[in-house]
Amino acid sequence: MAPISNTSPPRLGKPLKRAFFGRSVHEVAPDLIGATMLVDGVGGIIVEVEAYHHTDPAAHSYRGPTQRNQVMFGPPGFAYVYRSYGIHWCVNFVCEEEGSASAVLIRALEPTHGLAAMRRRRHLQDVYALCSGPGKLTEALGITIAHNALPLDRPPIALHARIEDVEVATGIRIGITKAVELPWRYGVRGSKFLSKPFPK
């Protein structure tokens, strides 16, 4: 993957439409690695995600619909935003057919667009720390509950397919207490922008 440029952001692939998300969450999750996520033009390359299926005890949808997770039970291609531990916002992409309630958590980005805005929001300069976690990236991109249930293919959100091949690593998910053995975490092997390295 090309290094970050301080002058011009890398070129973007074709826009991802909502139909992209109407597949198995286990197909969508690895296909998102290397794609670019922008919110009002600010964002970067997705380098780490986690898949959550409705049959998975760690999924918010496992026990059925609630006011908080309702968007997960709707059609694919929409954002599901929730507050983690009462502190950080986290953003997920709803996948599979309506009613499936499966989603991909976006865990880390390689910043490429709008670095000045991200640094201002995060109050730090270290490019490797700007988006190296689900709560960090939402703060950097200005994502809040106001983005919950928004379509992923209309402003302010834009997603673009990867334009070069990446080596996708897999591993167990982070920070959960149920279904901890499932290898449903995906990322760019060797990336310096991950929330946590993958085992070699």
From TrEMBL:
Alphabetized InterPro entries for the sequence: Formyl_transferase-like_C_sf (IPR011034), MPG (IPR003180), MPG_sf (IPR036995)
Primary enzyme class: hydrolase
EC numbers on record: 3.2.2.-
Keywords: DNA damage, DNA repair, Glycosidase, Hydrolase
CDD domains for this protein: AAG
Top-level taxon in the UniProt lineage: Bacteria
GO molecular function: alkylbase DNA N-glycosylase activity
Family: Belongs to the DNA glycosylase MPG family.
Name used for this protein in its record: Putative 3-methyladenine DNA glycosylase
